[in-house]
Write a structure and sequence with these properties.
Elements lengths: L2 E7 L6 E5 L7 E2 L5 E5 L4 E6 L2 E11 L4 E6 L2 E9 H8 L2 H6 L5 E2 L4 E6 L6 E2 L4 E7 L2 E6 L4 E6 L6 E2 L4 E6 L3
Antiparallel strand pairs: 1-2, 1-8, 2-3, 4-5, 5-6, 6-7, 7-8, 9-16, 10-12, 10-15, 11-14, 12-13, 14-16
Length: 174
């Protein structure tokens, strides 16, 4: 059974469907019958398509975002690859829902809470000042990691906190 990947080239809207016919075979565009790919050194490949040879070089690979920058015939291409599961998550909008959540704020270091600048119900924007934490005789302004509503305030002015202590809880902006 053929496995499938979807390649978005240079942020194009319509992806190129890639298939792998053998478990260890190369990924090839759907419908292409004769394609030869051979390694030609570290990060470099020789591709033979319809009797024409082209050299492809991997310039940069970012596995976290699923992107690869390729140089093919002197041109630079950015290719984002997703499997069927990632494509479905994206199509349903579940990736956007999850990325919008602002995590609870925890103390980045042990210190003394000098002041709490927000209260429950306050709407904060990314990088707004939330509280001031003194650590090693330095005042550190702790900022909002994203747009949110302050749901809980655990930090108390004048109290010491340990690294990782919960300072603030957030709810999504409605």
């Amino acid at each position: 059974m053929a496995r499938k990947l979807y390649a978005h080239i240079n942020q194009g809207d319509e992806p190129v469907l890639l298939e792998r016919r053998l478990p260890d075979g190369p990924w090839v565009p759907a419908g292409v019958e004769r394609l030869d790919v051979a390694a030609a050194g570290k990060g470099s490949f020789s591709v033979l398509l319809d009797g024409r040879s082209v050299r492809a070089t991997v310039v940069k690979e970012d596995r976290a975002s699923g992107t690869v920058k390729l140089r093919i015939g002197g041109k630079l291409y950015t290719v984002r690859v997703e499997d069927e599961r990632a494509r479905l998550v994206h199509a349903l909008g579940l990736d956007k829902a999850r990325s919008g959540a602002v995590p609870d704020l925890k103390a980045p270091m042990p210190g003394l809470v000098l002041s709490v600048l927000v209260k429950v119900g306050d709407v904060v924007k990314k990088n707004d000042a939330l509280l001031v934490l003194e650590a090693m005789k330095m005042e550190n302004v702790i900022k909002a990691p994203g747009d949110a509503v302050v749901a809980q305030v655990h930090a108390v002015q004048g109290k010491a906190v340990e690294k990782g202590a919960l300072l603030l809880g957030f709810a999504p902006v409605s």
